[in-house]
Recover the amino acids of this structure.
């Protein structure tokens, strides 16, 4: 299964200069937030594949103009052809805007999902906007990761945690792919193809 991971910046290759066939081979699209709802609607329309998303801290218009044909999985666990995907969007609270959470608030969100994870027999992919603490986050407060996401990974051992929020062009020199034990952490900034049959090293 191939997943198109997207976050934070609309890809000119997939939107402004899109050509038919560029989404061929993609089985689903996972959005980590801070993208135009029109962009998500375009991708799901052109691909004909399911698109699951969580909110970024700048997604202020989704309530009025949600992406059409896409599925929000905030605080939910969905099953895609046997792949268990859990969504936890938002960033650390730094300016009082929407989709921002204190560490305590994020920890409560994680706790409320325990039964769903247990009922599903675990989780394969955790889809977030913010990274977890110490893995792909940055030193400035607005881009710090959540400790509760780190605790979640240590408890449930998902195959992947996929996030956005920290732009790879910020100059933080953070690798696109990181690992914590058996969990692979991927920064989905702009676009990234994840081939589950050929995992990144």
């Amino acid at each position: 299964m191939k997943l198109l991971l997207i976050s934070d910046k609309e890809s000119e290759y997939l939107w402004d200069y899109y050509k038919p066939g560029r989404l061929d081979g993609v089985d689903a699209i996972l959005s980590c937030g801070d993208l135009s709802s029109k962009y998500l609607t375009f991708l799901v329309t052109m691909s004909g594949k399911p698109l699951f998303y969580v909110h970024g801290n700048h997604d202020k218009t989704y309530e009025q103009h949600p992406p059409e044909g896409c599925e929000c999985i905030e605080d939910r666990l969905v099953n895609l052809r046997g792949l268990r995907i859990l969504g936890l969007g938002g960033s650390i609270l730094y300016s009082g805007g929407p989709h921002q959470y204190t560490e305590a608030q994020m920890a409560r969100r994680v706790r409320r999902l325990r039964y769903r994870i247990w009922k599903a027999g675990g989780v394969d992919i955790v889809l977030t906007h913010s990274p977890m603490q110490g893995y792909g986050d940055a030193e400035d407060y607005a881009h710090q990761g959540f400790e509760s996401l780190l605790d979640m990974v240590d408890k449930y051992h998902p195959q992947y945690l996929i996030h956005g929020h920290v732009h790879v062009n910020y100059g933080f020199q953070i690798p696109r792919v990181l690992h914590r034990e058996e969990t692979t952490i991927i920064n989905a900034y702009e676009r990234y193809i994840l081939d589950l049959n050929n995992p990144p090293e």
